Amino acid sequence: MDDALVIGGTRFIGRHLVEDLLAHDYDVTILNRGTHENPFADDDRVSRIEGDRTNDSALEAAAIEADPDAVFDCVAYYPKDVQAATRIFDDCEAYVYISSGAAYGREEIPKREGETPLESCTADQAADDSGETYGPRKAEGDRAIFAAAERGVNAMAVRPCIVYGPHDYTERLDFWIDRVNRFDRVVVPGDGTNVWHRAYVEDVATALRVVAEQGDAGEAYNVGDRRLVTLEEMVDLIAAELDTSVEVVTAGPRELEAGEIEPDDYVLYREYPHVLSTAKLADLGWESTPLEEAMARSVADFLESDRDGSEHDPGRENEERVLGILDTF
Prior knowledge:
The protein folds into two domains: about 5-165 and about 200-225, Rossmann fold; about 170-195 and about 225-275 and about 290-325, UDP-galactose 4-epimerase, domain 1. Helix 1 packs across helix 7 (about 200-215) and helix 3 packs parallel to helix 5. The termini are far apart. It is of the alpha/beta class and about 325 residues long. Helix content is about 40%, strand content about 15%. The longest helix is centred in the middle third of the chain and has 17 residues, at about 135-150. Strands 3-2-1-4-5-6-10 form a seven-stranded parallel sheet, with helices on both faces. The model has no long low-confidence stretch (mean pLDDT about 95).
């Protein structure tokens, strides 16, 4: 494969995917509405087509103009998006859909492709745009991949867990980096052993390309860090990269109540562990970035940005009340 079309391609996962494809000598075209700054505007190796991926005519025009060997769909949020794309790009050598670990419908450790059931999805959920239906919509997109493969389309899905790294507009990890950077005491909900599997963004980009090149039609592939760390261990990794030390103060629901905080108010906290098996992807030759290196790049990018994760902040004044209560024990 030589020519790739990336639907999206300018913000986070898509941006890193374009960089990975360029590093592997692909000719790249991106398709998007142009509502976000294009980091490749001055790169003559990247062509751009303006169009809305929810408009089938725009996809059909892009299929003709780009004539891609591989299509990477970074912004398919509804099952109908996947259904349309797998029809329009049915003669490509590979169509890869970014699904999600949220597509799984049962709590298992770890969640495995083809074994752990997917979320069900009603017709109303398939058209809804709320966060509550994100997992069901992604699962229905996966089922559209399976159906396309049965029609002979070389369609595959990649299921990342929580993605982090440079240019992350969600600012989820940024909240924790900012906390460690500004305070010598960091409140962590629960007992610190919470595990919510995360995936470094450059590894997700590599996974998308590897699946396009080597994956099997109708298959889904989980992607996540090959080394799992708890929330407390993640804070310690951040502190090491910032060359600082912090006291991690764990607080359960009763202690957090003093600051009118719920454990779920903290981003990247999940009461029940969420772990994806990545063995199937590793069998294709994919490897993950060493965690210290991934965190170093993430912290460096944070320090160069104006992001602070403040939209996820439960309130430092609230935390100070919690710390005050804990100090009396």
